[in-house]
Amino acid sequence: MRLFKVLILFVLIFTAGCASYTTKKEAFPQMYTDRPLSILVLPPINQTTAADAKEYYSVTVTEPLSLMGYYVFPMEVTSEILKNEGFYDTELLINTPPQKFRQYFGADAVMYIKILKWDTSYYVIGGNVKVSVDCALKSTISGENLWKYDGTMVLDTTGSDGGAGGLAGLLVKVVLTAVQTAAADYMPVARQANFMTMSSLPYGKYHPQHNQDGDSKIIKKDNVEKTESENK
Amino acid sequence: MKKLLLFLLIGFLISGCAKQQLYNWERYPFSLYKYKKDPTDENLQKHKEMLVAIMENSKEKDLRVPPGVYCEYGFILLKKGKKDEALKYFDLEEKTYPESAVFMQNLKSYLNKSDKSSNANISSSETAKKKEGI
Fold it and tell me: Is any Cβ of chain A less than 8 angstroms from the Cβ of B123?
């Protein structure tokens, strides 16, 4: 009977957070009609003072996005091609209509990433990084927004599994290795932020649950920040 | 009752664990970051080895090689002047992921053009032409 009580308690805790959930299909209906297969990720735009945030972000975005079932064009190749085509300026890239990227890359959708905040803080027994991003996936056919994520994540840098432990929808367990060298310190943070961000995307063609996840629950956008900090 | 609950609980736990990973990415972002931060020959070599490890281990685990890996590897070979080998990997990318066909074809034609101008970079007139297109 004690087990029963514990279980009830669990259910209560979970339902307490449920008020702010929606389904993937409700949140992003166009993902289910447009069904993009291939995604071109543009180099992230860094609006923070953390100079390295852009690199951390760009090298860690392909993995989670591919694991959601999409074909992701290799950023190392595409960013160089874009530079050769004269797109040195990220501003220029944002102002280019998404349709243009269909011609050269054959991409179904384009991913735009803006890093708005990258604040590190330290306390006696650890530290964290507050990361705010604004991501949007746009169709290269209609030019319209298919998916969007903007929110703040607080990520633990103490070296344990971070703040993502209780997050629903996180597909792959992100193993955080406590790399102590200065250069690699924030890699796991960016990687985890990308995993969290991309987990609200509907599954793509290469995922076994493609087209079957319309009813899966995700956290409603405007409640993301609150929920994240509660998880801490 | 107790038994049933325990059974359910265990069932939930197992279903969570059994998820098979779609791809094997090894430690790709780490070697790539290192190379981008400090683009030495040594770091490029290490990243190249990482790409090889991804391809080999994926085959071993009977997984599809992750998107873009063949292409990225081919691109590194191309920059080292190994054109024929590079083409082989661009073909592998296209075969594994048909949605990459447009890009792979463009990459190849880009390669042939750069051959004529005997330069790895696209010639200026072509750049101007492409700019209108893209």
Answer: no
